[in-house]
C-alpha cells in the first residue's frame, strides 16, 4: 500500500523551511558566530557561558537575523514536521496505535515552540542582559527536543 498523497505534499512543504534553515540561515548565523553552532541545533546542550559567548559573537546584526529570519522559519517547520510524523505513524500503524503514537508525536511542536520563545528571549536580552536562568531554560527545551 502506497503512502497517501497528502503525506508527500506535507513532506515537501516541510522540506522548504528545513532546507532554507540548514543551507542558508543557520550557516550565515554560524559564520557571524565565528563557526559556533546555532543554539537550537546544539542537541547536547549549552551552558550560560556558551549562550552568552554565542550572542556576543553574532552581535546585533546576527541577533536580528536570528530573530527575523531563522526563528520565523523555525515557527513554520515544527507543525509541518509534526504533520509528517503524525501521517507517517498513522500509515505505519493503522488504527488506534497509529492515532496514539501520531498524537504523542505532536508534543514535539510544543517543545520546539517553547525552545524558540526561550532562544528569542536570550537574543533580545543580549549578551549583557541574559541571565543564567534564561540560558538554562533555553538549554532545557533544546535538549528536551
Question: Would you kindly provide a written description of the structure presented here, covering whatever features stand out?
Answer:
It contains five helices and no strands. It has one domain (5-144). It has 145 residues and is mainly alpha-helical.
H-E order: HHHHH
Radius of gyration, rounded? 17 Å
Cα shape: elongated
What percent of residues adopt helix (DSSP H or I)? over 70%
Query: Gap between N and C termini, in Å?
Result: 32 Å
> Mean of the pLDDT scores?
94
Annotation field: number of helices: 5
Which residues sit in consecutive blocks of at least 5 with pLDDT less than 50? none
Major sheet size, sense and barrel closure: none
Report the structural category: mainly alpha
Strand content: under 5%
- How many distinct beta strands? 0
Summarize the structure.
With 145 residues, the chain is an all-alpha fold. It has helices spanning 5-32, 48-92, 96-105, 107-129, 132-144.
Task: List the topology elements.
Blueprint lengths: L4 H28 L15 H45 L3 H10 L1 H23 L2 H13 L1
Question: What are its keywords?
Answer:
145 residues; 82% helix; mainly alpha
Amino acid at each position: 500500500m502506497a503512502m497517501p498523497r497528502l503525506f508527500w505534499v506535507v513532506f515537501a512543504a516541510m522540506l522548504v523551511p528545513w532546507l532554507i534553515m540548514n543551507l542558508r540561515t543557520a550557516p550565515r548565523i554560524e559564520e557571524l558566530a565565528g563557526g559556533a553552532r546555532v543554539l537550537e541545533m546544539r542537541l547536547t546542550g549549552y551552558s550560560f557561558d556558551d549562550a552568552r559567548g554565542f550572542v556576543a559573537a553574532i552581535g546585533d546584526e546576527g541577533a536580528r537575523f536570528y530573530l527575523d529570519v531563522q526563528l520565523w522559519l523555525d515557527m513554520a517547520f515544527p507543525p509541518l514536521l509534526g504533520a509528517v510524523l503524525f501521517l507517517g505513524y498513522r500509515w505505519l500503524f493503522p488504527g488506534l496505535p497509529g492515532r496514539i503514537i501520531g498524537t504523542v508525536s505532536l508534543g514535539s511542536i510544543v517543545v520546539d515552540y517553547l525552545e524558540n520563545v526561550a532562544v528569542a528571549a536570550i537574543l533580545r536580552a543580549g549578551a549583557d542582559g541574559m541571565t543564567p536562568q534564561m540560558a538554562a531554560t533555553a538549554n532545557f527545551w533544546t535538549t528536551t527536543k
